[in-house]
Amino acid sequence: MIIDLPFIWAGLIAFAVLAYVLLDGFDLGIGILFPFLRNREDRHLAMNTIAPVWDGNETWLVLGGGGLFAVFPLAYAIVMPALYPLIIAMLLGLIFRGVAFEFVHRTKRMQGFWEFGFWGGSLVAAISQGMALGALVQGITVEGRAYGGGNWDWLTPFSALTALALVVGYAVLGATWLILKTEGASLERAQKLAAPLSMALLALIGAVSLATPFLETRYMARWFGWPSGIWSAIVPLLLAYAAWQLWQGLRNQDHLRPFLATVAIFVLSYVGLGVSFYPYLVPHSLTIYAAAAPDGSLQFLLLGAVVLLPMILAYTAYSYWIFRGKVRPDDGYH
Amino acid sequence: MLKDISAIDLARLQFAFTVSAHIIFPAFTIGLASFLTVLNGLWLWTRDEAYLKLFDYWKTIFAVVFGMGVVSGIVMSYQFGTNWSVFSDKAGPVIGPLLGYEVLSAFFLEAGFLGIMLFGREKAGEKLHMAATAIVMVGTLMSAFWILSANSWMQTPQGYSIGENGQFLAEDWWAIIFNPSFPYRLVHMVLAAYLTTAFVVGAVGAWHLLRSPDSRGAAIMFSMAMWMALIVTPIQIVAGDAHGLNTLEYQPAKIAAMEGHYESFPKGHAPLILFGLPDDAAGVTRYKLEIPLLGSLILTHSLDKPLRGLDDFPKDERPKSALIFWTFRIMVAIGFAMLGIGLWSAWARWRGRLYHARWLHRAAVLMGPAGFLAVLCGWITTEVGRQPYTVYGLLKTSDSVAPLQADAVGASLLAFIGVYFLVFGFGTFYVLRLMGKRPKDQIEIGDIGPARAAGITPVQALAPRNTTRNMETDHDH
Prior knowledge:
- Chain A is mainly α.
- Chain A has helices at 5-33, 40-50, 54-71, 73-82, 84-103, 111-138, 157-181, 184-215, 217-224, 230-251, 257-277, 288-291, 295-322, and strands at 142-143, 146-147, 280-282, 286-287.
- The mean pLDDT of chain A is 89.
- By secondary structure, chain B is mainly alpha-helical.
- Chains A and B meet through helix 3, helix 4, helix 5, strand 2 and helix 13 of A and helix 2, helix 3 and helix 14 of B.
């Protein structure tokens, strides 16, 4: 077999996770920003901008988890117990977030409770994901074919930092999404929120980037060695360009540019993480080749993925196209 | 040692709890998606507004239930790793791709078109909206296909080899997907989902017919549901019997435990134990009430074929009879009660009294939740009955569990129980409240003459605004 199946699948899983982070990122961001929106009408309007698409967005998380189970079962079997409390917290958070879309419209008396759940659920899910990211970057103890660390290994200052960075990042995605999808006073509020949050995000990306090489000499070698060090010139440069675009977009009160620039910032940060990780799936204990399922399994699922993923992307794009444009308070079926 | 045992028990309890809570929602949405597709098709075909109103009525209920199904389903996709990581490592190469196909071919399909189905009739147009509704239905069925294939492979594994590292390796995907118990389980479960939905729809229709006998929307749904009960229940009983024969062939210990047969019947002539108290420790069924020969007739379709009892299996490979003896009987009893309702409705229909048979309506209301109970009992029977294995005969449950401390599993179990009862408790309440609202017919209450016939007093009919508000007391927005 000439095709490097584990490498292709690592790319596909990475793509699924990135798609999740971007798409559910603005959903969760809206949840995180909930208390900072003007009033209940604005909050429901913000929810309506994502009501038709959130379920599809969240499905990328199922592909990330289910895909990991399918093609890197060993990594799945090690990472899930290692991040146990975080995964459980994320799932519970996503429950409150997900049901809120319908529940807030099904009751008057408990409306505030489910709105609180939408905010709290989004926040808890974002924190859990950010901490999981930090825990992965700092490395996971493996013994034989299982997790070998303790219950609380994931809880460190570094994972707290990555959690904060991801929460702020999602909030910027959410704010710029609202700039794209709303108008009038709602739009102005989103613009006001986006500016300081963007500054905070850039500072946090800087802090995480500076802290990472000092966690592990291998990260240091990756970023400042040759030839991989070339990335440490390119990625920050592109990041600076994206940040400038975001700033310009906010200053000129563009509607689309801030969102696209934030997406670019996420993609570049993600590429940076990929540079640090490769070829490990669980740094620095498990490579993609050691974790991969046998070729027969990779091939079988790839056959379907090659056909189905382009279709998924096509109809997802189509659904976004149907619901394109600004969302008005009288839209939606509620 | 004690700690290890309780961590496994807690992990099993947690999985049983989260998967039982989850199965309730797909059992309903699989049927409801098909029902909505039919309703929308009828609306486009006949242009009778009653169907459009019914579509909108059930669409809102579908949205709430589907949302709960999605969030409880995501939990499942991660629980394999968090609680059963050794199973995930070993069976991942076989089970994983099946679940991968479920995500790619079903979950995305449902999620991608759900938005158009719920919100897009105007924006996308009638044709595309119809297509989206049908696609969501296909998605729910595809999802059932893959998840039941994965579950069935764990019950009747084939097409694999075992690698040096202890992993199951796929040798023949066709054999894996279409493993021996899969066709039976798929048919049995999809029919169960249809029946569950039919009895919910029937109960809602009956409830509103009891209160306003002239409600056309209620009459339509009651009639459709009763046709389903009449036609699908007998098919389901035949399918269940075939599933049982298949189980006897591949998992005879499960059948023995379901029937409370601790002793073998080498020459057949096994009785059917109607009721009794299976005692797993002593290995006898006490106080049994049995019918001679009927057990052999039902289980082997003959009188003298040998039938194995639990005594034919080593003690540590016997599933617990005490539980599944009862869950199986409850499921079967509900099945026959459904058949009874179907026949009763046929008789009422033939006499032209389908919409006025108040005792039938009351019985139908009572049977509303019966499908869920039957589904849960069925799943407990098949899942407890295949213990002590996760992959039948090959991988024991005790060798599948994640290396977790009992306190971590216990804490998360408590969190799941608390959150599920809170969230799904309220969700169920909201669904019941939506069902309690009268389905609107094409004639709005405000402009009707025959208000009296609809059970509204003349005084109220003179003040239609008032009436409307009364009907909509619970309408929140």
